[in-house]
Write a structure and sequence with these properties.
alpha+beta, globular, disordered C terminus
């Protein structure tokens, strides 16, 4: 029996296609620049076996004014001390999070980025 580290995708599965959705309006020009840096970094590492590997670099880019954490297959960003998520880094193949300025999809509409419309995650409202 062979063992694969958890950071490697199971055999036969593609690498995750990372993207950033900024879910709240940036609070300042400085925050907007930091989030743009995060977006550039993620775009430079779009195909990655495990999105959680991006968390350290995101934390370094944003600094101590932000909390950065991981779920099973995503990275979230919050302003320190605030409950709402500022941004999420997720897999384009399985999720459809949207930037704060993008219109919401109509209820029941299939996500243009979801591989399986029956198992997509809900779009935050």
């Amino acid at each position: 029996m062979t063992f694969s580290p958890p950071s490697l995708p199971p055999a036969g599965f593609p690498a995750q296609q990372a993207y950033v959705a900024i879910e709240l309006l940036p609070a300042s020009a400085a925050e907007k620049r930091c989030l743009a840096q995060v977006r550039r970094h993620v775009l430079a590492h779009t195909h990655t076996p495990d999105l959680r590997e991006l968390a350290g670099a995101v934390k370094k880019l944003l600094g101590s004014a932000y909390e950065v954490g991981c779920g099973s297959a995503h990275v979230w960003v919050k302003r320190a001390g605030e409950p709402e998520r500022l941004a999420i880094i997720a897999d384009r193949l399985t999720t459809a999070y949207r930037d704060w300025f993008e219109p919401q999809l109509p209820a029941g509409a299939a996500s243009p980025t979801s591989r399986n419309p029956h198992r997509r995650l809900a779009i935050p409202g």
